[in-house]
Specification:
The chain has about 475 residues and is mainly alpha-helical. The protein has helices spanning about 5-20, 30-35, 45-70, 70-90, 95-120, 125-155, 160-165, 165-180, 195-215, 230-245, 255-260, 260-290, 295-305, 305-345, 355-380, 390-425, 430-455, 460, 470-475, and strands at about 220-225, 225.
């Protein structure tokens, strides 16, 4: 394998492991809570403690990579992620596991936006399209394969190996990147936007906390008269102030990126897609365990259906996109994901045929296999070379914010529907709760379809053949 090929391999190893960790613990929360002394109600923080810093710091990390060089940010972030994976695997108290997960999420935030940036700087433009497509596929599939991997690891070993398995992967990625990545200096000397960093971090922290914890506090008081609506409102105000501050030179998020129609629309689509994927993995295990009464290993195999079909379809997505273009490949993928969710939802009410549920997951996987390779390419078009990290950071932030929203909103839908039936004097109806949650996710993916239909079609992509990138497209894919 060539030196650039080894670098792409190393980057995608890290890309895989950091994104898998967003969902791999969902099926093991009861066992981890028991092993560390967490209450089951607090077990949600095993997921949120990772997602919130990952969501909040990605844009900042991307901009710092542009400023100081992506290679050094990547190596620091991967080292922190590996060290905290070890701490998670050895943790025995609630404080230790939650703190380690939060710092692990910070390490992942430092790594994630550097992947696209390092590819753009290390590979010639005619090879970037394939590398970007591969990284986009891995970014998407990694999240949906997490619960299946978690279930299999939990069955074969113990919950601690869900974290410890990261160590050899991180070591290989670190050594390969250190040896194969060329020297990557930062951009031109300019002031760091500390005001923007503070406003953006504070805004997303408050919004993420409000969304994640709203249901637990019954959307009321959290502390001394401060309520969830107060927290969300303050986060929204800070976010508006952040956007207003970005009109200055050397800003954290160049507004020129957000003024481009395709960049804005694909980021909105990315949020809706997370509801179609993360929503499934929050709600479906409830159906499989509570209604169909499957064991952990069987749940892992069922959940593996979506990433399995997604990987197979993603291998052929290049040929689809060269025929119909990135835009319509995305539209077909969203339609397939919606159809798969509807099939699963229609069989959830009475714990329908397991075969039909698996078929729905396979169909949904066909959709994600088409969506993930082209999402990153569309999002990166036209970004200047020295803003690659910022563009990647914006996409990653919207994806992770979508994950936070999907996990919390879908979980709230489940809880409210179950509580409603229980308060009516009836047994908990998990099948109906899962069905309503999945139908809600279908509606949001449908909104994503509408957004995708007004994307500008890139005709040059449709003319690409066998990795040959036209000159007009090579400039767009440089990011």
């Amino acid at each position: 394998m060539s030196r650039p090929g080894l670098l792409v391999f190393a980057l995608n190893l890290a890309n895989l492991v950091t994104i898998v960790d967003t969902t791999i613990i969902t099926i093991a929360i009861p066992q981890i809570s028991s092993g560390t002394g967490l209450t089951l109600s607090s077990g949600v923080w095993l997921l949120d403690a990772y997602l919130i810093p990952l969501t909040v710091f990605i844009v900042t990390a991307g901009r710092l990579g542009d400023r100081y060089g992506p290679k050094i940010l990547y190596l620091i972030g991967l080292s922190l992620f590996a060290a905290m994976s070890l701490c998670c695997g050895l943790a025995s108290t609630p404080t230790a596991i939650i703190a380690s997960r939060a710092l692990q999420g910070l390490g992942a935030a430092l790594v994630t936006p550097q992947v696209f940036s390092m590819i753009a700087r290390a590979l010639p433009s005619h090879k970037q399209a394939g590398a970007f497509a591969l990284s986009s596929v891995i970014s998407g599939i990694a999240g949906v394969m997490g619960p299946a991997l978690g279930g299999l690891l939990l069955y074969a070993t113990s919950w601690r190996w869900i974290f410890l398995i990261n160590l050899p992967i991180c070591l290989v990625s670190f050594l390969l990147a250190l040896a194969t990545a060329p020297s990557m200096s930062g951009g031109e000397e300019r002031r760091t936007d500390f005001t923007g960093i503070a406003l953006f971090t504070s805004a997303l922290t408050l919004i993420s906390f409000g969304v994640v914890e709203g249901n637990r506090f019954n959307w009321g008081q959290v502390w001394h008269g401060i309520t969830i609506p107060h927290i969300l409102s303050l986060g929204a105000v800070l976010l508006v102030l952040y956007l207003l501050s970005q009109r200055r030179p050397n800003s954290l998020t160049p507004l020129a990126l957000l003024r481009r129609r395709n960049t804005t629309l694909i980021n909105l689509v990315s949020v809706t897609v997370q509801f179609g994927t993360i929503g499934v993995y929050v709600s479906l295990p409830v159906l499989l365990r509570q209604v169909l009464e499957l064991d952990v290993k069987s749940v892992g195999f069922v959940l593996a259906a979506m990433p399995a079909s997604s990987v197979l379809v993603a291998l052929a997505t290049k040929y689809v996109s060269t025929s119909i273009g990135l835009k319509y490949t995305l539209v077909v993928g969203l339609l397939s994901l919606t159809a798969g969710l509807l099939l699963v939802a229609s069989n959830a009410r009475f714990g329908g045929a397991l075969g039909a549920i698996v078929a729905g997951l396979l169909l949904g996987g066909v959709g994600t296999g088409l969506i993930f390779p082209v999402r990153g390419l569309i999002a990166m078009q036209d970004a200047p070379r020295l803003m690659v990290g910022a563009a990647s950071g914006v996409l990653s932030t919207t994806r992770q914010l979508g994950s936070v929203l999907a996990a919390s909103v879908t979980g709230a839908f489940l809880q409210v529907n179950v509580q409603t039936t229980v308060e009516s004097g009836l047994p908990a109806n998990y099948g109906d709760a899962v069905r309503y949650s999945l139908l809600f996710c279908c509606c949001l993916v449908g909104v994503g379809i509408l957004f995708s239909l007004v994307l500008r079609q890139d005709r040059s992509v449709a003319r690409t053949r066998r990795g040959s990138v036209p000159r007009s497209q090579s400039r767009e894919l440089r990011n």
